[in-house]
From TrEMBL:
Pfam families: Osmo_MPGsynth. GO terms for cellular component: cytoplasm. One of its GO terms (biological process) is mannosylglycerate biosynthetic process. Transmembrane segments: none annotated. Signal peptide: none annotated. GO terms for molecular function: mannosyl-3-phosphoglycerate synthase activity. It comes from Ampelomyces quisqualis (Powdery mildew agent). This is Mannosyl-3-phosphoglycerate synthase.
Length: 484
């Protein structure tokens, strides 16, 4: 693979987000003996070839998690066939029992025939729910009155997938949707993950311990209109979420950045170092991908001079990268942690922390500070060659729900200035009236946010899972390590 890279990036505290890279060649050829991360500049940009060895080294340590909810099994089958051989496949299904049986059978047959490893699990499996409760994350479990099970939602499936990848010992996790109609594009996404992760980890020799994330910007999202295929450059939900995410970024980087830096706010297809996946807080459902950016900024943006008397947080004293005015932080007044506004109104025993009730993570450092490990996160956005052909028949309600969930993460960010919130509220009122989680005045429900996955006790999780090993279908020794 060869990528065109640019030096343009936006830095907010320890978070570096690069302007979108492009795939130049799907395969950079055999002559690439060693990946050179700083090859010759062409028109101010650089093209970087990645050797097969460099890609392979990441793939061996990469688990690809496939969340699936009642997708056509023949389409899922194509997705599975697109995932490079050395990646571990983790299918996380929330499908109806009959559909799940078919999905699992396809996965097991395919992996047995091609001698590769995989794990299949169902989101509502009681053993998995018990493992989460025992290991310290009861918030993700619901329905204690009957059989406990993990809440519905894509974000929730992704959390389970990350835990399984961690138990198997993988260093990286990537996600691909199960409704992708083109196996070749899934293959390209995975190659982009490997090339991007390699680049992010090695492009700066001083970046010891950097955490990496790669977010895919698909080339286009085709739709059929009047019998013709139209290759739309942006999706309906992405367009909206990216716009508001860029508005927020503009506040964070003190209006120095571009207005379109974020092109992957909703990126369902993304990959990251597992260390980072364990640090991140995952949000429920379709809020999960936009919230990754919000959470990253909230934890690592650096400290903010808080002059707002209504904010009951100590003033931060570390080096400032930017300063927000008191009025800009008005939104802290919103921190009412009203669980009744959370998208899913479940019993209090299983509720989680709403985004806006969490304390800012950067508190004054006791003096003298111990040497801190690198906190740097490098986020790449990479545009693929393949279009993203997926199931477009999920309806307008699906798009609206996705928008509302995505926008709620921005609206409730503690960095969102009151002016931005007010404009966003008007937008929501005008465009998303009647959607779940949207009130009459355009107020968005607080998204459900889970504790960082790294807070789980993995030894306990494993032993509960082992006792309930029916929860998992496993092919391959590599995958079997989940229960060792
Ligand atoms: P879109 O492509 O952004 O419109 O989102 P999709 O509806 O296609 O969802 C992305 C992926 O997540 C698909 O593979 C879905 O089947 C899957 N998905 C959606 N909701 C759930 C869920 O509750 N659990 C699981 N396991 N997968 C889900
Ligand atoms: Co889809």
């Amino acid at each position: 693979m060869r990528l065109s890279t640019t030096l343009a990036s936006t830095r907010v505290g320890d978070v570096h987000i690069h302007e979108t890279f492009q795939v130049i060649e799907l395969d950079a050829g055999h002559q690439v003996e060693e990946t050179k991360l700083s090859s010759a500049a062409v028109d101010g940009s650089y093209t970087v070839p990645f050797s097969h060895q460099a890609i392979h080294a990441i793939e061996k340590e990469l688990a690809i998690i496939v969340p699936c909810k009642d997708e056509d099994v023949s389409i899922l089958d194509g997705v599975l066939h697109g995932i490079p051989h050395d990646c571990l496949i983790i299918l996380l299904s929330n499908s109806k029992p009959g559909n799940y049986a078919a999905e699992r059978a396809h996965l097991m047959d395919y992996c047995t025939a091609s001698q590769r490893s995989s794990i299949a699990a169902h989101q509502h499996d009681a053993g998995i729910a018990q493992a989460f409760i025992a290991a310290g994350m009861p918030q993700i479990v619901t329905d204690n009155r009957h059989t406990p099970h993990i809440r519905n939602g894509k974000g929730e499936a992704m959390i389970i997938g990350v835990v399984l990848a961690k138990l198997v010992g993988k260093r990286f996790v990537g996600f691909v949707d199960a409704d992708n109609l083109v196996a070749g594009s899934v293959h390209e996404y995975c190659k982009v993950y490997a090339a991007g992760l390699h680049y992010a980890l090695h492009c700066d020799k001083q970046d010891d311990g950097v955490r990496a994330m790669v977010r895919i910007k698909w080339n286009s999202k085709p739709k059929v209109q009047d019998g013709e295929i139209v290759f739309e450059k942006s999706g309906r939900s992405s367009r909206v979420v990216n716009h508001w995410m860029n508005r927020l970024l503009n506040v964070l980087d003190n209006h120095c950045g571009q207005t379109d830096m974020i092109q992957t706010g909703n990126a369902g297809e993304h990959a990251m170092s597992i260390d980072y996946a364990l640090e991140l807080k995952f949000a429920t459902g379709y809020a999960v991908e936009p919230y990754q950016l919000i959470d990253t900024w909230e934890r690592l943006a650096g400290s903010v001079a808080i002059d707002n008397p209504r904010v009951a947080e100590p003033r931060h004293t570390l080096a400032l990268n930017y300063t927000l005015k008191a009025a800009d932080l008005d939104n802290e007044a919103h921190n009412s942690s009203d669980e009744s506004t959370a998208a899913d109104s479940s019993p209090p025993s299983t509720t989680s922390t709403p985004a806006s009730s969490r304390r800012p993570s950067l508190l004054p450092c006791p003096s003298p500070c111990p040497p801190a490990p690198s906190r740097k996160v490098r986020i790449l956005q990479i545009q693929t060659r393949n279009p993203h052909f997926h199931d477009t028949g999920k309806g307008a309600d699906h798009i609206s729900k996705m928008q509302a969930e995505g926008l709620s993460t921005i609206y409730h960010s503690r960095f969102a200035p009151e002016t931005l919130k007010s404009e966003l509220r008007h937008y929501v009122q005008a465009n998303l009236a009647g959607v779940a989680g949207v009130s009459e005045d355009g107020e968005l429900a607080v998204p459900r946010i889970y504790p960082a996955i790294g807070t789980l006790d993995f030894a306990v999780f494993r032993s509960v899972l082992k006792a309930r090993s029916v929860a998992l279908q496993i092919v391959g020794e590599d995958a079997g390590a989940v229960l060792l």
